[in-house]
Amino acid sequence: MKVEELPVDERIIKLLLERGIEELYPPQAEALKSGVLEGDNLLLAIPTASGKTLVAEIVMLNRLFREGGKAVYLVPLKALAEEKYREFRDWERFGVRIGVTTGDYDSSDEWLGRYDIIISTSEKFDSILRHRASWVKDVGLVVADEVHLIGSYNRGATLEMILSHMIGKAQILALSATVGNAAELAKWLNAKLVMSEWRPVKLRKGIFHMGELKWEDGSVERFSSDWDGLVVDAVRRGKGALVFVNTRRSAEREAVRLGKKIGKLLTKPEKRALEKLVSEVEDNPTNRRVKEALINGVAFHHAGLPRDVRTLIEDSFREGTIKTIVATPTLAVGVNTPAFRVVIRDTKRYSSFGWTDIPILEIQQMLGRAGRPKYDSEGEAIIVAKANEDPDEKFKRYILGKPEKLFSMLSNESSFRSQVLALITNFGIGDFRGLTAFLERTFFHHQRGDLYTLSERAKRIIHFLFENGFIDLTLDDSFVPIPFGVRTSQLYLDPLTAKRFKDALPHLEENPNPLGVFYLLASTPDMSSFYAKKSEMDDLIDLAYEMEEHLYTDIPYEDYELQIFLGNLKTAKVLLDWINEVKDERILEEYKIDPGDLYRTLELADWLLYSLVEIYKLFEPKDRVLNFLQELRLRVKHGVREELLPLVKLPMVGRKRARALYNAGFRTPEEIAKAKPAQLLKVEGIGPGILKEIYRALNVEVEIREKRSKKTLDAFFK
Questions:
Q1: What is the 3-state secondary structure (H, E, C) of 132-157?
Q2: Model confidence pLDDT, tens digit, residues 386-407
Q3: What is the spatial distance between Cα 383 and Cα 377, in angstroms, rounded to a whole number?
Q4: CATH, range 3-195
Q5: Which terminus of the chain, N or C, has less C-beta within 10 A?
Q6: How far apart are CA 209 and CA 8, in angstroms?
Q7: 413-490: which CATH number, 1.20.1560.10, 1.10.10.10, 1.10.357.10, 3.50.50.60?
Q8: How many other β-carbons are positioned within 10 Å of the β-carbon of residue 496?
Q9: 146-199, pLDDT tens digit by residue?
């Protein structure tokens, strides 16, 4: 189908032609002929890189230009939201306003009302629905990207409940990889179904075993017995390679090892480009490992890396500066990083149930990264069978096998508990009959037809919510939302977290202290605590007994409970070190954690501290305790001791510059305002540009003269 034949606004056709898109792929054409342009719901289930996003763009713009209103584009990850924002900005030239929202769960984000396309993570949009943002009534289209994640244990229930709310109120466009029960999902969504195995780049799939690469067409190639020969061969041919392994440490180790081989293949200009890239990466224990691999054209990629480093790696790989990425499976979810050759080293991973097979759907997501449209006529996706594994079994399972069916994740007790509370406190469900009626709209009920099981679980949750003061019940069993429940739902907290906060308030008032509060945060289901290693246990147990009176809990004796307790205590200790200005590098080194995990923990601690303050306000708070908590949150936000809090409120002043100013004798904003620029410029980290921003914030008008270097030609002639 030619782009010019599309029955859409001329502006859409014009921009597509400018992008060089003259003809649509067959599944794109089929999707756009399905009735989706006329307002029908659609589930588009096609392989990675087959053009799902373009279909969504055309549908969104067609609807906005013809009918107005708003479109919401749901994604599973913050990184994916940022990527889509960059893609969609093309449309701003036609007056289409693009907004992104991914954080701050205690806000309706009314400011988003001025945007036409709103890109949001599922969790954030769920929060917006709970806050009853006025602009939601104008949403005429919801695009659910990666909708197969409805089967994800952690994210699935949230996405399912959003769609349950929006079906019938807005058009639904669901985008997915091929799944085993797409027809069932489409029926629930009341959607047309377009499925296809077509790809713009031909995909060759094979199994590598002991030096032999067997393709699905029966042909065989020989390599060295180690799988890394597959990667070296791709780079030697001027192509990129993507390797998937099952653990972070494996990703790091293999990246460094591969780099020693790939570095020998690089040209001098390529090496210079990599040296420049390495210089842009901040120095810390994890990033030193990044640099060790990066200098040789290889990178590792996992959730433990800071977001800016992950983005740098993804961009540099797409540009060809980085030749190979060794990644954990998180990279396969949505982020656009195609490669000529994909090598999957591991098809098993460790979970709480021991070693398990990675689902076919996930493996196929990884395989689908092979082949770069516009660059390759074909891509190669290879699964490695280890020496003790049967390559034929892997071939049958992963190459010939069909993806698993998706199942509703309302079976996740934590997610379901939170959603039931939200239905009562934020969506006006007034009694059990109304609750049951809503649950009949879910994928869980559509799929299993078992309303009894869902209702019984809901009854147990209602009992929990009533017993713990989240809701009240009238004599005729009607639900009555009360402030504690309403606020818990608005804050996007698991009710169990809110209960722990409430139960701890007497201890908090008796003994407000940072370690006790941090342990409380770490013990909630909303915080992902660090794991206490065996080598750390003795020191943590000593700390527990030494600080027992400051903890708002007893030290357990059962092995399993003690393990959890020590992990929570380790997390609390990390936060304590952070606010006591222990350097990032030392924290990472001492606790053997990655930067991404540290920053994620700090973000969670900031949100949970804010939530603790908000919950405390409901129960006749004492000013001294409230002030302590609010100050503690600021210390977590900035990573400083109390005395630096006035300084970190200044623009461009973080924990390092604040400490440098304080140690130089500038301990308050007033002292900085009175100081001469020359004095302040002597402080480490304070340059003319930063000083101008500080002065602007303090309403100080002082001319800052920048010293000229005596080594410049200009200085020489003067």
A1: CCHHHHHEEEEEECCHHHHHCCCCHH
A2: 999 999 999 999 999 999 999 9
A3: 20
A4: 3.40.50.300
A5: C
A6: 51
A7: 1.10.10.10
A8: 18
A9: 999 999 888 899 999 999 999 999 999 999 987 889 999 999 999 999 999 898
